[in-house]
Each structure stands twice: as C-alpha cells, then as structure tokens.
Amino acid sequence: MADLITVDDPDDPRLSDYTGLTDVELRRKREPAEGLFIAEGEKVIRRARVAGYEMRSMLLSSKWVDVMRDVIEDVPAPVYAVSPELAERVTGYHVHRGALASMQRKPLPDAESVLRDARRVAIMESVNDHTNTGAIFRSAAALGMDAVLLSPDCADPLYRRSVKVSMGAVFSVPYARLESWPRGLEAVRDAGFKILALTPDEKATTIDDAAPHRLERVALMLGAEGDGLSTQALMAADEWVRIPMAHGVDSLNVGAAAAVAFYAVTSGRPGL
C-alpha cells in the first residue's frame, strides 16, 4: 500500500517530478532523460497502470483521494495529497482533473520488432504538435491500426498533452522512433509494407481507388500540420493517396485526416 503524505510546501523536493509542467521545452528535455512521463486524470492513470507502466508517485487534491483509493492501496509508490492551490503553484496550471501521476517509461522497441506482427501501420513525419500527436494515436487505437512509427523529430507521444488528448491510447498502440529519415523507411519496405503518402496533391490517387484495405501490408505516412509531408518523404513513398474534398476545402487537419484515412486502411479487415 502506498504512503499517503500531506504536503503543504510547493518547494518540497519530493514534488520535483511535477514542477513546471507547462514549460514545454524543459519537460521535453527532462522527461525522457529522467525516464518519466506524467499521466493526468483518473482514466489516464488507470490506463497507464493497466498497460504495465510503473508508478513513481501520485499527486492528488484532497477530493480525489477517495476516488483513487483502490489505486493508493494497490501501489507501493508515495501519494502526495495537496490543496488545489498548491498543485497549481507546483505545476504551473490549474489541475482540473485533480489527479496526476509520475510514471516510469519503458524502453522503446525498435522499428523491426514493432513491424514484425503488424499489418496496418501509421508513419508520422515531423508531427511536433502534441495535440495532433495525441489525436492521431487515439484514432489509430480506435480504428485498428497495429502500430505507429515516428520520424526522429516527431513530438513525444508520452508528453502530458499528447497522453491527455489521446485519453491514454498512446499506451494501447505499439510505437517506435525511426533512427534516420527518410532512410528508416527502408525497414518498412523490407518488412513487406506498401508505403502510401497521404497528401492533398491533385496528382494523388483517391484513397478509395487505392483500396488500401485490400493490401496485405500497408503503411500510411502523415505529415505535419500545414507543411504536410516533405519532398523526401513523398519521393520515398510507393504511392500518393488523397482524401477527396468538397465545397472548396483543400485539406483537413492532420488529426481529422488521419481518422478518415485509418478507417479506409482498416475497413473490412478481418476482426474489425
């Protein structure tokens, strides 16, 4: 059973995992280096535990102690009970959900091991907005994608905002970070995947005509909001595909486009 510890000093060193959560650059550097990430909210914390992540500690406002009582009784990590005001001073923002947990990261698998048993894979190039990253992972989990691969410069899926937006779906979909780009795509092709590049370019085949759901193994590449896929990524693809647009709209937000394309990729797949 965890120790329930009341803390009233925002500078208490035991709360160091939770300091400055709104400082994106600081947390982006610090969290992977220290092997931690922050789970926010009851559902996300529970999903992280179900996914096998070890809890380092938990930070709760008083009204959440009873809600999380079963977790408190089940983990050996310390649980810090604080006032909402103190939580805000420590983290830098109002913690609406009243519950935070510092979790231990797992070693990230390599691309080859992630691809081994996969048939439907999403590949993200330079998607560095944490909201979009979380939305893409949530759609990937919900619509039956088997894995996600990230270019070296993609945002961290375990950053607090990504985890929150995904509602913990980042714990459900295996992912790996490619070590080089676009050379790392060779491993995808060597594993038997046809690589499709999602682009609004009119020269691209409509995703319905491409019929990706009929392919044995398919990898769908998505680019960053605004810029889309780089020239190098487009040249490395086997085929360009697009989502037909109407009413003069030229493209969708990458999170929305991912959901539409994932459905096209997985529709009719056995077991779904």
Automatic annotation (TrEMBL):
GO molecular function annotation: RNA binding; RNA methyltransferase activity
UniProt keyword Aminoacyl-tRNA synthetase, yes or no: no
SUPFAM superfamilies (alphabetical): alpha/beta knot (SSF75217), L30e-like (SSF55315)
Swiss-Prot/TrEMBL keywords: Methyltransferase, Transferase
Residues covered by the tRNA/rRNA methyltransferase SpoU type domain: 122-263
Domain of life (superkingdom): Bacteria
Matches recorded under CDD domains: SpoU-like_rRNA-MTase
Alphabetical GO biological process terms: methylation; RNA processing
Signal sequence extent: none
PANTHER family associated with the record: RRNA METHYLASE, RRNA METHYLTRANSFERASE 3
Protein name (Swiss-Prot/TrEMBL): RNA methyltransferase
Organism: Streptomyces malaysiensis subsp. samsunensis
